[in-house]
Amino acid sequence: MFAADPLARHYAQLASDARHLKHVESALRVFFCVPVAHSEDMADREMSVCLEAKLGEPWLTRAEGHRDIIQRFGRFLSPQSEYVNLIHRSDVAM
Fold first, then answer.
1. Structure pTM?
2. Closest by CA position to 51, among listed 41, 40, 62
């Protein structure tokens, strides 16, 4: 991804641990989730689910869906992905 991603995730974790989320207006709380929202690391995915659970819907469902994709395939899927092609083939059992 980007060189500063580990640092951003670090500060997102610190902010979460310090419970800063509850002190920020609701429209801005989603920005606490951004550093982990696109990570393919399972620890980050679990952190994303925990953070986005505090935001409620639709954020929680989105975070859980992303986590489930990483659990199943080990990475996010692109439209060109071989996994996407396999999912749509009727002769391949998943």
1. 0.73
2. 62
